[in-house]
Amino acid sequence: MQAKIKWMKSVALSLTGLFLLLPASIFLLALSIRVFFGSSPLYDNVAPSFLKASNELFAFHKTSWIFFGPLAVILLNALFILLPLLLKVRGSDDRRLQPGNLWFNTAILIQACLLLAAVSSYLIIQHLRW
Asked: What angle do CA 89, 103, 72 make, to 5 degrees?
């Protein structure tokens, strides 16, 4: 019973992580299409909401999803993976990390770190450019 609950928590957290990473992924996809193929209509629709947040009323919310989504995924998945190591459950002498149960959470955590690094470097480059 306990393993089934942990599995359901893992799947729910993984799906939540995927949905939180979607805005940043779409933004970086639009940027990649613009840089590598020279097509900018998709980028022109997405980038102003990320770069010029003060011009639109609701642009801050779009910016929050693009930047803080991967940050939230990193925090949630890192806590889910490391919490059993940090807290000992009563009645258990030894707590070990079982990679077979956490591979999807680990993959999403790595993807979130890479997306956050890419979005942060994009913001730094755009800030230095202007």
From this structure: 80
